[in-house]
Automatic annotation (TrEMBL):
Domain annotation DUF6362: ranges: 20-117
Pfam family, one: DUF6362
Name of the protein in question: DUF6362 family protein
InterPro entries: DUF6362, RNA_pol_sigma_r3/r4-like, WH-like_DNA-bd_sf
Gene3D superfamilies on file: Winged helix-like DNA-binding domain superfamily/Winged helix DNA-binding domain (1.10.10.10)
Amino acid sequence: MNTEIKYLEQRYREAWLTARRLSSGIQLGHGSGWPEMVFDKREQLRRAEREVLSVKPTAEQEDRLMECIRWLAPLLVVDRKLIWLRASGLTWREIANRTGVPRSSIHRFWHKALLHVQLQKTGRK
């Protein structure tokens, strides 16, 4: 696998992780009738650890995410889905099960889709 494909694979993995950390921004406006929860020290520590994991992405990470998404625009929907599924960390077997494409062909189709991204990125088609 050439270095540019490896680079694109890493960029899409980073983009997927960044997208997971973005808040949806949806405010439903619902309130709760339940009283405010009071947590003990142990639970406060657990909640603090979870909040550290959900740190919002930086502006640069969001820009790189948007750049990766723009690279996907000219691709077929099937190719976009394949790149995104692999970026999510799924194995080739899990991707094959989800897409219905034989496992022996998934890697080849994914590589071809990334080659299209590479060619589009460099201005060649």
